[in-house]
Amino acid sequence: MGTPESTTTERTIRTRAAELTDQPLTLLTVAVFWTWLVVRWTNDFLLDGALIERGTSFFPTAPFEAAASALGSLAASLGPVGFPVGWVAGFFEFLAASIPYLPELAIGVWATILLTVLGIALGFVIAVPLSVARVYGGTITRSLALGYTELFRGTPLLAQLFVLYFATPLTTVIRELPTVGTGFIPAQAFWVAVIAFTLNSAAYQSEYIRSALNSVPEGQLTAARAIGLSKVDGIRHVVLPQGLRYAIPGWSNELVYLIKYSSLASFITVRELFERTDAIASETYRYTELFVLAGLFYLALVISASLLMEYVEEQVAIPGLGTTGR
Amino acid sequence: MSDPLLALDDVYKSYGEEQVLSGVSFEMDAGDVDVVIGPSGSGKSTMLRCVNRLTEIDSGDIYLDGDCVTDADTDVNELRKQVGMVFQDFNLFAHLTALGNVTLGLRKVRGMDKATARERGYEHLEQVGLSDQADSYPAELSGGQKQRVGIARALAMDPKLLLFDEPTSALDPELVGEVVEVMRDLAAEGITMLVVSHEMGFARSAASDIIFLDEGRIVEHGPPEQLFENPQAARTGEFLSRLETTHEGE
Amino acid sequence: MPPLPLQSDWAFVVENLDLLIAGTGVTVALTVASILLGFLLGFPAGAIEVYGRGPLKRAVETAGVVLRGTPLLVIIILLFFGLSVSSSAFVTATIALGLRSAAYQSQIFRGALQSVDEGQLEAARAVGMGRFQAIRSVVVPQALRRSVPGFQNEFTIVLKDTSIAIVIGLGELLTVGQNLYQGGQSTAALEIFLTVSLIYFVLTFVTNRSLDRLDDRFSIPGGERA
Ligand SMILES: Nc1ncnc2c1ncn2[C@@H]1O[C@H](COP(=O)(O)OP(=O)(O)O)[C@@H](O)[C@H]1O
Ligand SMILES: [Mg+2]
């Protein structure tokens, strides 16, 4: 069941996305995006709104509105040949309309990133033993690990969120914990989402790591045993360092997936990027502008993740091993 | 007289229906270099792997330096510290440099600190003539260099016995020489080696004894002069003459 | 603490099994329609990425990056409330899932097309076929066989993601579950959502098994698997 063999396809998908995104303009956009985010978060979270009041945008709308209307009338006066100018006018209109919502969305991006990073990191901690159990375990541990991954990979993440949120006492338990929902610590729904993402992503990550471990030649463990390492130490010092490198492409893929699927946390009231966008949209009815904006934010996060993973891959690359030089 | 360094006593091993070793017995003393020859599938690799218990035997006993190492309570990792192994396809740790390959066992098995292990590692790379490649990764080395690192890795554990499983048969002909050269040096230094190899030049000049294995049995066992010039068993002669013809082209 | 699951909660699920089965029907229909749309758009897109050039190729690649980089949730909402492509939730969900699936399927096909040895195309040209004909009758058949595993993966992803159509109120399986839960029987949450999950699990399991069969059927004797 499942298709661990698809890692090659996934690898090419990601490499190709990187080819397309590795252009100066994209890099510049990503840099601007992150600078803005960091300044915004610093102002809102750390400096208590010292630079500018919380919720107020850094950028004035007036110049963009003026530009939009000037260009709009220019386009009108040009008649039928004015349509390119009209497009530019539309773009400025879009900017002017978006600016007031930027601060709110930046806070949403923070929650989205937190959800993703916690989900993937905690998921990794579970995924490594899971995959080792799948490859090296006895019959019982092996089938337990298999059952876990098949269960979580065979049902929708949204259904898993619903089971945890509506059908278990998890929310009640977490709500009682100290500091939850006060100050920086998000409310219980966020933590339920983190648990769901962790459990779900552990299943997918373990599948990537499992096929990576399988691609480490058997002779490697034999040689490790031959110099006197125990099986556990051989796996730890010889097989895992290689296998985890093979797993990087699949793992990056999972990171990208998780960024996008973190939007599902909005269904259980987590106030991440999608939820905040949706809340504003249902008040202002500016669905198109707002969701195009949200889409661009997600895209920027996904591209940032791809670039980051590409960098990581380069940093840990070893000649002749894994994705490079093969 | 003291105990032999290695002794196999009536060793049997089967895989399912297939009998791979059928009552193998022989002894070798410290400093001996024994070369095992025999047709493909005759059980040579299996016999070597039984000595360091990468493969478990069905019956019989194996003694290292007088201690029975096939007891259930023998610590296999302790045994493998004392028996080094060099593989046909090198099996260098692909994520570690040449030096990393040599020092991993020193650090994780012998518990040496990093600096001491590095120092020792360099010495052993020097021994195989590769101290200048210490920082290269396996993929950056030629086959002959890889195998020399493999030998250094085994040597580093300071074993009582070194096992070689066809160390040159994965190499291009022009790279065989450098590896055989290293093995000759080790033999001259008095290191005890049990070598599966069909390098006749090495066998003639360095071996104390030749062991001819066929269908899981030792057919003939004796010094190279006797075995090569005057084989006792008909099958030995046949095998040797076939070996001559196949190696002629090289 | 929520009340312990009662016998009656399971009874409630059983009573409403017909609703759940109807929802399952919608889920299956949505999956099939989306996969088909994804194939119709994704296959040519993959071919364009391999054999195309110029602005068309760049446009296809960019559309792919955007669709693969945006959450399905955002795509669905944008199509339904923003662009209002259709007043039917089913049609909108099909377009959203289909477009996104096309972006992924194009990559499966692109990889498969590229994995077919160059020599195949040359050999076909050597017997006198034109470029288009050679691609169509020699490269494409081999590539399609090699894309079965990737396609299998994509199939189950779409199947699971149909649940996201709940956001526009489409009456698929998870929506039915949610409605049952909020329609007053909130003590049955565990029973309802476990049943729903079980149905999804059975669906993905059966899909995977059938596509495994397909893979075996179409594999070339003696040929390596993709
Ligand atoms: N792990 C194993 N499982 C099953 N059969 C094996 C295994 N290892 C070796 N054999 C069988 O044992 C026989 C001897 O193999 P081997 O010791 O590798 O021979 P040689 O090294 O002399 O070529 C062969 O027939 C081989 O198929
Ligand atoms: Mg052998």
Automatic annotation (TrEMBL), chain A:
**Which organism is this entry from?**
Haloarcula mannanilytica
Q: Which CDD domains match?
A: TM_PBP2
Supply the Pfam families for this chain.
BPD_transp_1 (PF00528)
Localization recorded for this chain is: Cell membrane
- List, for all copies, the residue spans of the domain called ABC transmembrane type-1: 109-309
* Official protein name in the record: ABC transmembrane type-1 domain-containing protein
Q: Name one GO molecular function term.
A: transmembrane transporter activity
Q: Tell me which PANTHER family the record gives.
A: L-CYSTINE TRANSPORT SYSTEM PERMEASE PROTEIN TCYL, MEMBRANE COMPONENT OF AMINO ACID ABC TRANSPORTER
Q: Which protein family is named in the record?
A: Belongs to the binding-protein-dependent transport system permease family.
UniProtKB/TrEMBL annotation, chain B:
**Coarse class of the protein's main subcellular location:** membrane
Recite the UniProt keywords alphabetically.
Amino-acid transport, ATP-binding, Cell membrane, Membrane, Nucleotide-binding, Transport
Residues in a coiled coil are none
Question: What's the superkingdom here?
Answer: Archaea
**PROSITE patterns with a match to the protein in the record:** ABC_TRANSPORTER_1 (PS00211), ABC_TRANSPORTER_2 (PS50893)
Q: Where in the cell is it found?
A: Cell membrane
Keyword Transport belongs to the record: yes
Protein name per UniProt: Glutamine ABC transporter ATP-binding protein
TrEMBL record, chain C:
Where, subcellularly, is it found? Answer: Cell membrane
Does this entry carry the keyword Transport? yes
Cellular component terms (Gene Ontology)? ATP-binding cassette (ABC) transporter complex
The membrane-topology field of this record reads:
Multi-pass membrane protein
- Transmembrane segments in this chain: where? 20-51, 72-99, 188-207
The lineage's top-level taxon is Archaea
List, for all copies, the residue spans of the domain called ABC transmembrane type-1.
Answer: 24-211
Q: Keywords of this protein's UniProt record, alphabetized?
A: Amino-acid transport, Cell membrane, Membrane, Transmembrane, Transmembrane helix, Transport
Q: Is ATP-binding among the key words of this record?
A: no
| InterPro entries the UniProt entry points to | AA_ABC_transptr_permease_3TM, ArtM/GltK/GlnP/TcyL/YhdX-like, MetI-like, MetI-like_sf
**GO biological process, any:** amino acid transport
Q: Which family does it belong to?
A: Belongs to the binding-protein-dependent transport system permease family.
The cross-references to NCBIfam families, in alphabetical order and at most eight, read: HEQRo_perm_3TM
What protein name applies here? Amino acid ABC transporter permease
Q: Which organism is it from?
A: Haloarcula mannanilytica
**Record lineage:** Archaea, Methanobacteriati, Methanobacteriota, Stenosarchaea group, Halobacteria
